[in-house]
Design a protein that fits this description.
about 210 residues; alpha+beta; Aminopeptidase; 2 domains; nine-stranded mixed sheet; globular; EC 2.3.1.189; mycothiol synthase activity; MshD_Acetyltransferase; Mycothiol acetyltransferase
């Protein structure tokens, strides 16, 4: 639902949540940017539960160099056979609030008109070490999700996954590629800045209904 709709009439959010409860949903999150949107949510009984940095990388930049230590890993298109392992890696990297289940994973892949879902494997047994989902829409690219198993971190795998997605976005002549990350995730922020992403002045706040 576009913010301009509920900013004018916050009651629409309440109606949407009522419909969601009838469909079996129990938790509702709303993104907000800017003072006005945040004030409307606070006045409507919502509470802020997290904050995200917003970064963009201009597609005119040269692609970053991939560390040699990541060269032995293999990239391939994700399939239904990878879902369980992707969820395992994802849940090992994100706190429960942000961790994905199979439904959330499918929604992330389908969130944009065009997407690129790649997994990274290592070793003779094809152990899944990480994955990335990039999306494309409206002439812009989006790094929807990325995770590298903690056991395989520090080898440049995340950089290789990101560069793969940046190369794909560049082929489609995107203007820029965006990504969001939790403000307290300093490691991710350092990596994105190193790879040429630029931090935006205005971030995103995540709200949910306050306990009654």
């Amino acid at each position: 639902m576009p913010p301009q709709v509920w900013v004018r009439n916050p009651e629409i959010l309440m109606r949407a949540m009522a419909v969601g409860r009838e469909m079996g949903y129990s938790r509702f999150l709303v993104q907000a940017t800017g003072v006005t949107q945040k004030a409307v949510l606070l006045d409507s009984g919502f509470q802020e539960v997290d904050r995200l940095h917003v970064l963009f990388r201009r597609s005119t930049l040269n692609l970053p160099k991939v560390p040699e230590s990541a060269g032995s890993a293999r990239l391939q298109r994700a399939s239904s056979l990878h879902v369980d392992e992707v969820i395992r890696v994802d849940n090992a990297c994100f706190e429960p609030f942000w961790a994905m289940n199979p439904l959330a994973l499918s929604e992330a892949v389908a969130a944009t008109p065009r997407s690129r879902f790649r997994v990274m494997t290592v070793g003779d047994s094809d152990v899944l070490a990480g994955y990335a989902i990039f999306g494309l829409g409206g002439g812009e690219g989006y790094l929807q999700r990325i995770a590298v198993d903690p056991h395989w971190q520090g080898r440049g795998f995340a950089t290789r996954l990101i560069v793969d997605g940046l190369r794909w976005a560049k082929r489609w002549r995107t203007r820029r590629v965006g990504v969001n990350t939790q403000q307290r995730n300093e490691n991710a922020l350092r990596l994105y800045l190193k790879l040429g992403f630029e931090l935006q002045a205005e971030g995103i706040s995540i709200f949910e209904p306050a306990p009654s």
